[in-house]
């Protein structure tokens, strides 16, 4: 442990003691102390500063200026057609913003083209599972992440939650796109724009009475720690589930999948010293930052309703009890209870027994007669859901917000 880390630990330990004595600690607030070592990161070193006190300073300041000068509509207009990774930036952007974007669009020196291709191959082979896990699993999990749920609820996009939920799920899917980080792909443009959106949210949300009332003392949203929490609700969660389901995954596939998400973390503005270098490091960090903070919030409950509404609308043949049972199965009862998913005492054990058999059959591990018919109803419905909800090639239209959600 570095000196800085040790000192912070002592200071924070004292503060937590006082908090506990006053009986104020609530599960939503109870963050573990930051002890994760930067030597486990892709950078391999770092100051060890608690990422809850780190944001994205340079772009945060630039975007705040853009908002204050009333330039957001013009910037959004200019960026509307900037969608391909190899496209030059449009003329007319404020100079500072343009310079920052030119830097931000560069892939990190450690990006490895071969590993990125391995990730594409992996997603192509396992697309049904990853699609379901991003669209349903990560989507539902995000509603149990209090800071994310509240930020989304009180920001401009919160007024149309279905659209908002769909956009985040879509990003998970686009990461696995054939062209993701290649010149003709769109992930660089999407990540840089998302970074701009997050910077705008950091400027705007502190002006929202709803957000300020519920932020638990956080003064600026979307810290680097928050970014990592959400990151873990994507690849770390997805890989954990694939392992639980005993999906056969080669070392190359697993490394490729981690790599594309490491690159994505960097492109979304997460500092290299916080990005886990290995799955072991990712799991350790996730246990520290994600597991302790999942909780119920009214804002998260509203988001859960929106997500379940989308799934029902997709009408892939999933009945409500089946959606509930499968959702509980993939996020677990703890999160299921927190986000208010109905219990399905009869269907849930059936789904829990049937799904691993579908996986085993699809992966050629068992013969067909071993798979009960409900398993196929489920597989068919999920396949349709992935196809319709996470439809390939649907571009994400990201706009920099210039206001919070109106109430
Ligand atoms: C916007 C992805 C972390 C809160 C977005 C958008 C994407 C995205 C694709 C644009 C969609 C839109 O405009 O609606 C991600 C990813 C993250 C991450 C991949 C981490 C790996 C976070 C965190 C928070 C957050 C940690 C809050 C604690 C928001 C908010 C918006 C947004 C409030 C704007 C919604 C609006 O008002 O339009 N994010 N995000 N995000 N994100 Fe994130």
UniProtKB/TrEMBL annotation:
Protein name: Oxygenase MpaB family protein
Species of the source: Streptomyces prasinosporus
Superkingdom field: Bacteria
Residue ranges annotated for the ER-bound oxygenase mpaB/mpaB'/Rubber oxygenase catalytic domain, each copy included: 131-343
Short name of any one Pfam family annotated for the protein: MPAB_Lcp_cat
PROSITE patterns xref list: TAT (PS51318)
């Amino acid at each position: 442990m570095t000196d800085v880390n040790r000192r912070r630990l002592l200071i924070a330990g004292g503060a937590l003691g006082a908090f506990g004595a006053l009986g104020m600690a609530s599960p939503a607030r109870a963050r573990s102390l930051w002890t994760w070592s930067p030597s486990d990161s892709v950078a391999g070193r770092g100051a060890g500063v608690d990422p809850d006190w780190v944001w994205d300073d340079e772009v945060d300041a630039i975007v705040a200026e853009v908002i204050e000068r009333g330039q957001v509509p013009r910037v959004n207009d200019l960026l509307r057609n900037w969608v391909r990774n190899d496209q030059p930036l449009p003329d007319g952007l404020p100079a500072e913003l343009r310079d920052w974007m030119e830097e931000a669009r560069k892939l990190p020196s450690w990006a490895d083209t071969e590993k990125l291709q391995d990730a594409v191959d992996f997603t192509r082979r396992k697309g049904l599972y990853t699609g379901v896990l991003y669209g349903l699993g990560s989507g539902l999990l995000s509603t149990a992440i209090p800071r994310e749920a509240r930020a989304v609820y009180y920001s401009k996009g919160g007024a149309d939650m279905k659209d908002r939920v769909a956009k985040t799920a879509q990003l998970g899917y686009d990461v696995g796109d054939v062209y993701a980080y290649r010149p003709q792909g769109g992930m660089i443009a999407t990540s840089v724009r998302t970074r701009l959106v997050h910077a705008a949210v950091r400027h705007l949300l502190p002006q929202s009475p709803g957000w300020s009332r519920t932020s638990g003392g956080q003064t600026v949203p979307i810290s680097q720690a928050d970014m990592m929490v959400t990151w873990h609700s994507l690849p770390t969660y997805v890989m954990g589930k694939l392992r639980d389901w005993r999906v056969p995954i080669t070392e190359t596939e697993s490394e490729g999948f981690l790599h594309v998400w490491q690159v994505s973390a960097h492109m979304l503005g997460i500092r290299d010293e916080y990005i886990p270098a290995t799955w072991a490091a990712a799991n350790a960090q996730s246990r520290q930052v994600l597991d302790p903070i999942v909780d119920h919030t009214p804002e998260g409950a509203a988001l859960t309703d929106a997500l379940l509404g989308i799934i029902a609308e997709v009408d892939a043949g999933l009945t409500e009890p089946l959606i509930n049972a499968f959702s509980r199965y993939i996020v677990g009862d703890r999160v299921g209870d927190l986000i208010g998913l109905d219990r399905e005492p009869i269907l849930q054990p059936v789904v829990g027994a049937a799904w691993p058999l579908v996986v085993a059959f699809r992966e050629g591990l068992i013969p067909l007669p071993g798979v009960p018919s409900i398993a196929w109803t489920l597989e068919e419905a999920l396949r349709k859901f992935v196809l319709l909800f996470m439809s390939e090639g649907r571009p994400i239209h990201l706009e920099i917000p210039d206001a919070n959600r109106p109430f």
